[in-house]
């Protein structure tokens, strides 16, 4: 009987190990991109909440959840819809033209040329006038890279968020936008 019980427990342990391995593979399959070394774009938000430190702030509305984590002097915003992470944003505390240009150069070296989605008033013809329009909330600088059909990167500079880099899961964001009344 002991031999049989020993075999049974070995079989149970092997079954549990196999189930855990399958779970890890499934979780890794849902990760479109590991962002900032910690956040799995399109990954399970519950899994992040189990493994990450406590966020400094969180908000939820319907199927949407926003978590805020400190990252040195900056902040990371992790946005989820229906339990999956659709957007990870790093908001920089210091917003300057030099930092914007440096980030654009780094991203362009890695992902190639960006699409310019900036919006400025007609009077904002110089860098200083564009910066002033951003500060007034009349303009916004946005550069977009599409390294994959499944996700994209946006470098933005707006009055509301300042300077930020966002990684966005296209399908989940589109699903959220289609269902959202106003969003997180």
Protein traits:
184 residues, single chain, 10 strands, two-stranded antiparallel ribbon, 5 helices
Descriptive account of the structure:
The protein has 184 residues and is of the alpha+beta class. 38% of the residues lie in helices and 32% in strands. The chain contains 5 helices and 10 strands; from the N terminus they run αββαββββαβαβββα. The chain has an 8-stranded antiparallel beta sheet with strand order 3-4-5-6-10-9-8-7, with helices on both faces. A hairpin with a 2-residue loop joins β5 (74-81) and β6 (84-92). Mean pLDDT is 84; it is low at 7-28.
Instruction: State the secondary-structure class.
Output: alpha+beta
| Fraction of residues in β-strands | 25-35%
Helix share, percent:
25-40%
Largest sheet descriptor: 8 strands, antiparallel
Structure annotation, total helices: 5
Count of extended strands: 10
Low-confidence stretches: 7-28
Topology:
Layout: H1 2-29, E1 33-35, E2 39-41, H2 45-51, E3 57-61, E4 64-71, E5 74-81, E6 84-92, H3 97-111, E7 115-116, H4 127-136, E8 141-145, E9 151-158, E10 162-169, H5 170-179
Antiparallel strand pairs: 1-2, 3-4, 4-5, 5-6, 6-10, 7-8, 8-9, 9-10
Question: How would you summarize this macromolecular structure in one to three sentences?
Answer:
This protein has 184 residues and is an alpha+beta fold.
